[in-house]
Design a protein that fits this description.
The chain is α/β, with parallel strands linked by helices. It is about 35% helix and about 15% strand.
Length: about 475
Amino acid sequence: MTQPMARTAAPIHEQIYARFRSMIEQGQLSPGQKVSSLRALATELGVARGTVQVAYDRLLGEGYLVARGPAGTFVSEHTAPAKPAHAKKPPVAARPSPRASARPSAPETVIDMEGGNPAPLQMGLPALDEFPRKLWARLMTRQARKVGSLNKPPPAGYMPLREALAACLHRSRGIDAHAAQVFIVPAYTASLALIIDALGLAGESAWIEHPCYPPTAQTLKRMGLRVCNVPVDEHGVDVGFGRKQFTNARLAVVTPSHQSPTGVALPLQRRVELLDWAGAHDAWIVEDDYDGEYRYRGHPLPALKSMDACGRVIYCGTLSKSLFPGLRLSYVVVAPNLVPQFELACRRSVHGGCPELMQAVVADFIAEGHFSRHIKRMRTLYARRRALLAEALAPYAADGFVVHLQDGGMHLLVDVREDLDDVALASRARASGFAVHALTTWRNGSPGRRGLLMGFTNISSQAEAQRLVTELFRAFDLRR
């Protein structure tokens, strides 16, 4: 770190963070190697000590560095170059199988109430009361006046939107991709269907997290894959278990930034293990980054895709959870060598797509900076609303309902004591109009940790939070 910081638009602490991360991932800094102290590096670079502290805190939080008290700060022993040792050549593009190509994209599975106002405590729903409707209406009116705005979009998506997303992902998630590598689809399940079709994975085995978002398993099964449940512990998906138990799997679908539904983040060591597994077994990783923007402590974690040197990670994102669900707009980012076969898969797809007018409005919304400002504002708002629900639930900890606050996300997981049936509780809640889910149902009913999943994004006040929780526990009717 003897070179001066570059004169770029990026803040100095971001440059320090990026340089250290790059040096660690490329092997220029070895596992266990001691790094400069805060004071020494600040003096060397001619910057404030606090600037270096911000960069180091982020590196510590993401697992690249470890602090050992008076001994100093060291590169984590669990780091390794991002490029898997077993995958020195780019992956060969898979040939789509007739079986996969003939299948239509899987429809979205509904696990919450639809239509009208959102149900209380509904998950995965952005704050509709805070959406910038006037700005959106102005952008839509401007686009609607343009010739061609009502056309059917190209199969892979509206190019200005693909360009805007590529630039946005580079800034916010550390993903280097050109617009041609970004494909627009109407929903997450359509993303999975496109990936399976393009890579010809029908008939193969796939790891899924256990527990996981129910439509993941449902879609994979409909597309002809064998589902392999890999347990999730306090560090995320257990990669070692998957490698031992399901040696022939060709696909892993994971949520590394914020596991759905437990909320844990996959640490650096397991990320490296997962990438190494994919390279060694000619396998693919689907990274579902469904709410990676919403992290309330520290910076948003870098995407797994940003560590992928061999093109094994396929990144899936959605705008329906950050803007509004009626948008029905998701996207897939693939390696450059996979672009031709994904273009073919898009052309033969039967799922349709988001109208070009809507895609054009979203492109403007992102390109003009409204999206990044909206995300920043929602992150602050959600942190406050998350606290409101957690505070309202706190008195019930004595009754065996314990809230575990994770670092990010759009829902809370409330542990339920062992003598209570979380499925029965959720059923009573839903009968009373609450969109509460039981953790057991996200494990397909298998035994294990019991809990309740509750969304907090549309709780607007402390009084509302208190009222909803009181009514919810009345619906539970714990005297039964």
